[in-house]
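Figure 2 data, in text form.
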Amino acid sequence: MLRKFSEFRSYSDNLRLGSITAFSAGMVNVISVIAFFAFTSNVTGHYAILAQEISKGNWYQAAVVLLWVSLFLGGSFVSNLIVIHSSSLLGRYLSHAIPISMEILCLLSVGLYMQHYYTQTLQETEMLVGIMLFAMGIQNGLTASISNFSVKTTHLTGLTTDLGILFSMFTKKKYRNDINLVKRAKLLIIIASMYMLGGVISGYLYINIGYKTFYIVCCVLVGIILYDFYHISLLKLNLRKQNKANSLSQKEIYNIGNS
């Protein structure tokens, strides 16, 4: 999921990345709505709130919302900055895994704070929402960057628009027979479904176990990192076996030639 970049990614790579990150984004967004009465996987509504607060002259509230939007923007900026500047030094897997690790740390810090320190004050809520928005900006920036903008998983507005366009195109046979368009529609449907599934599951979990739901989201994201780590380790092991087999074959040829 994390090893390949841009046009080198296959449909299955984007499908796995999109479905799992959409699942985690759906979980985070529903948790934030239940716990903090705020959306954190997108900023569309926050722009509207920002305009409303400015029009009313509520400058403190406007500043908070502007900070939230900036944090989402900053998360996307940071994740793509890491991908651009560290790929040549660390390799694609590590440069793609670092933003996911940062997202895990953000969500883990929110869960730990809620467990040990949270007293439900307005300032605490604003801070925690900001951290979650930064984490979602990281995720959305990473998935969009490495998939050549084919996968965006933290909000569904553009995705739903794209599906509407594709469904209208499918009213003509030539578009229904276009395998690339069909694959695109399947990808978007799966992303939307996984986002919803993540939201439903996290809503149920939060009602029953509260802040511990954050730890489950972190485990899902750790699974993304470990998935690629396992496959990279497996590839290296197979390569060593192949090199060993090749070296043995060359030795046998040498012995036969000198017998």
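Caption note: The longest helix spans residues 213-257.
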